[in-house]
Amino acid sequence: MFSHAEGKIELLTGNEIVVRAALAAGANAFFGYPITPTTEILQGWAQEAKDNKGLIYLQTEDEPAAGFGLLGAALGGKKAWTTTAGAGHLLMQDAVVVAEAMRIPFVAYIGQRGGPSTGTVIYSQQELSIARDGGNGEGFRMVLGPSNLQELYELMIKSFDIAWRYRLPVFVLGDGYLSKMTGEVELKKSATTCPAKPIVQNGKKVVNLRNCYSLEDEIATVIKEELKDFGKIAKEIEMSEALNCSDAEVVVFAWGTVGSAAREAVRKLRKEGKKVGLFRPITLKPFGATRAKQAVRKAHSILIAESAFGKFGRLVTESLFGLEGLKVERLYKPAEGILSEEIEDRLRGMLDGA
Amino acid sequence: MITRILIGGEGGQGVQAIAKVLIHAAHASGKHVAHLPNFGVEQRGGVSLAFVQIGDEEISYPKFREADVAVLLSHRSVERSKMHIGTNTKIIFDNSIIGQKELLGFRTEKIAIPASHLAKEKLIPRVFNMIVLGALTEEIGGIKEKELKKATLNYFNDKIKKKHELKHFNLAALEMGEKTIKGLRK
Fold it and tell me: Do A261 and B24 touch (CB under 8 A)?
């Protein structure tokens, strides 16, 4: 068993941190199917469950089974979660849309790897679109994008609170770098998150949850109500980092670990007096369009940096639509890491070119 | 200041072990640290790279363009590390594995440590990586000897429990690496 010491700095891998965060958040059931780069999460939880009979661990036959196992446990009142990556993430989506339809809490940590298909086991930011909208519905889910290990710990804990408080699927969208890297993290002894209770049957009360409708106007009414509710929740959840944007002439847009590389580049250039800023959405769903617009008030150009070909870029340009005269440059490196030096070089070029 | 270290070798040589012991020793010595293994699908037989950063300020992005120190331990790792070696990169290499000729393309300071040879002749072959670690920590400085020993024994704890003499061999290897570097300076 791990001992949780308040405020203690420990050296851990991202995957280890994910397990610690789930425990701190009061998670007590895990269903999963191993896939690199998140397999150590299953191993870590299995190890915990061996020593603690209060924890459920089940390695299922595939990702859909893991997703539906999670839903069953959540309906029964367990704080259940899972982890997957790449093709497994895609397979898991079927269970996630059921969670959306029936408003069942669902938490998954995703360690993005290179695609398409088996691709690489290493790293990418290519799973943003399926995390945000990967189903045959309206994408009623939240997506959180941690940029470093401390944020990974905190957002993982938060994901359990959001999922159970609002009864929604929540993805913490990490990547292979974040999963496999080792660094410092300050762990909490415990965290207060919304408690789990049985959803379909609690005492004598039985609840019937639907995901099947006979009439189109019937489902349309439900979707409209959900949209309204989702909009309200989104306002409460939305998070972003705007660094040095108030007077920035060039603003970098980046998320996840690329956000960390961009932050380093911006800090370095600021020390030289260059007017650059960073806008980094922490919630990729909901995406803070209003804050994004505010971040570029003084900017003549933006740079979009992502380890995919425009999945994030399209979100950014859509959210900034209508701003005239703003030049957009792109640093797209699908399935490949982006160094802070590369972002710095591009920013220098953009400042000189203005 | 942040010291950026790239360690390259073959899978199975203990490249990631060097990195892991190093960051734990540095962390215990009061430094900020980060380590990213470069991993492929293969469990062994591939080139293994470790990106390590040690510094006085927080480190959040795990990769870097140019290493301050590059540790090269196999032929293939030279090619794979090339893009991270600049004119200010100090190269530490095992000259019982890599020939001087292989490094002619790099116009930068090079330190030769015959770690593999020393391990085979004076200790046991498997502690070769700890000779490298002893040399590396002596070269970068700032890491407490006590913490380095502690981190080493901690990392190999399970193995040492089964085979007690490994404690001696690992500690002796660290010392041998450190002495070799010091000897080169004289």
Answer: no
Contacts of B4 in chain A (CB under 8 A): none
Pick among 3.40.920.10, 3.90.470.20, 3.30.470.20, 3.40.50.970: CATH of B2-185: 3.40.920.10
Mean pLDDT of B156-181: 97
Write out pLDDT tens, residues A295-312: 999 999 999 999 999 999
* β-bridge partners, A30: A57, A81
Cβ–Cβ below 8 Å for A148 and B35? no
Q: Whole-number mean pLDDT of chain B?
A: 95
Residue A337, sorted as left (phi over 0), alpha (psi -120 to 50) or beta, turns out to be beta
- Rounded mean pLDDT of chain A? 95
Q: Which member of B32, B39, B41 has the closest CB to residue A180?
A: B39
Q: Are B62 and A181 in contact (CB under 8 A)?
A: yes
DSSP character at residue B74: S
Q: In the β-sheet with A80-84, what is the strand arrangement from edge to edge? A: A56-59, A29-32, A80-84, A106-112, A169-175, A142-144, A283-285
Domain ranges of chain A: 8-237, 240-353
Q: What is the structure's pLDDT at A353?
A: 74
Q: SS3 string of A134-186?
A: CCCCCCCCEEECCCCHHHHHHHHHHHHHHHHHHCCEEEEEEEHHHHHCEEEEE
Q: Under an 8 A CB cutoff, do A121 and B37 touch? A: no
Determine the average pLDDT of the residues in B137-147.
Answer: 97
Contact call for A121 and B41, based on CB within 8 A: yes
How far is the alpha carbon of B55 from chain A, nearest alpha carbon, in Å? 12
Residues B123-138, mean pLDDT to the nearest whole number: 97
Give per-residue pLDDT as tens, B65-84: 999 999 999 999 999 999 99
A260·B61 Cβ contact <8 A: yes
Tell me the nearest-neighbour CA distance from B108 into chain A, angstroms. Answer: 21
